[in-house]
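chain below, 111 aa
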Amino acid sequence: MIFCKTKLIASMNEKIESVHENIFSGTKNIDSRLKMIFLVLEKIFFILETILFGIENIFSAPEKIVFVVEKIVFVVEKIFLVTEIILFETKDDLYGAGQGSRRIRADHRLV
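prediction:
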């Protein structure tokens, strides 16, 4: 009887240790995703600063308005695409692959 209880406690301890290992490995993945998100946000702010500098130049050269607006739209679309990809990869890490995953169509919209 004591042997059975000891064996049961040992198997429960092994299960608890494996759960802890899974939690800590998941935390490392989430930390790396968060670092990637902050890096992307830093790049986004740099791009926005560049856009604002371009807007300042619009007033000095009105013929460049259309070109700058097209660049702004292009950059904002790419920002949203990268952010969606990162968020869905992070969601996959949090909830497991397959539950939060989505495919990205050729026109960069999530399906």
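Residues 2-95 form one domain. The mean pLDDT is 68.
thats it, cya
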